[in-house]
Amino acid sequence: MAKITNIHFHSADGQKLLQEADEAQTLLIRLFKKQENNTFCGVQSSALLFSAQHFGAKFPDVTSQKDCNLESPPYVEGNMFSYTETSAAMDEAKVDAEGCTMEQVYNLFKQHGRNVKMYHADTVTVDEFRSLAIKALSHQDSSWGIIANYDEVELQQDLRVPLHVSFKDIRQINPFQPIGHFSPLGAYHAETDRFLLLDVWYEAQEVWVKTQDLFRTMQNIDGDSQKYRGFIILES
């Protein structure tokens, strides 16, 4: 497993990177909340982007976003399946048991009438990923957004797995060890070439991650879809 040098968002260095960030979505960062259900990372990530987009339409002025009222977001993990559009995209019981694929999250956005694009990691380069992600994050009103689908163990964000344990050994120890994960990106720092990963897993830290590291952890195949992981971009 390659060495990863993530920087914790809430550390002094992490906060400094936010202050210096070239692109940042304040509303999404303020709304950020961890997932509650073990398998609902895709659902929670989608809810965060939906609510950020909702509040961005109300508070498009960046200067007002740091202290505007964000109470009662319309989309949260707990109410997502109360929307018929969500149930049309995925079965709640199945997601509760198995999680969801990138195709299902993409379909969730489409069912909710959103303009969205999906990219598998084997169809784009790291430079193309960086450019597309920066473009999404440049919309400070959160009218655009991005969710990454990556290997949380390889990115060393799953604290249940010792860092010295290889991917092969994980599968030998526990063939059902969850690997795939969804989380939104909230900011980009050009000088260090890091994205702010708002990791929704409740045992993980939000971190600034190197672009190359994040992209590398997308380059593995989802066992359910038999397709490469990647990223989803919400457009206005």
Alpha-beta classification: alpha+beta
Order of helices and strands: EHEHHHHHEHEHEEEHEEE
Helix content: 25-40%
Q: Biggest sheet, in brief?
A: 8 strands, antiparallel
State the end-to-end distance.
Answer: 38 Å
Give the overall shape, derived from the CA principal axes.
Answer: globular
Q: Into which percentage range does the β-strand content fall?
A: 15-25%
How many individual β-strands?
Answer: 10
Mean pLDDT: 91
Low-confidence stretches: 161-168
User: How many helices in DSSP terms?
Assistant: 9
User: If you compute it from the alpha carbons, what radius of gyration comes out, rounded to the nearest whole angstrom?
Assistant: 17 Å
Write up what this structure looks like.
The chain is an alpha+beta fold and 236 residues long. Helix content is 35%, strand content 19%. The chain has helices at residues 12-20, 26-31, 41-58, 84-89, 92-98, 102-111, 126-137, 167-173, 211-218, and strands spanning 7-8, 23-24, 115-120, 145-151, 180-189, 194-197, 207-210, 221-222, 227-228, 230-235. The strands form 2 sheets. Strands 1, 2, 3, 4, 5, 6, 7 and 10 form an 8-stranded antiparallel beta sheet that branches. The chain has a two-stranded antiparallel sheet with strand order 8-9. The chain starts with 6 loop residues before the first strand and ends with a strand.
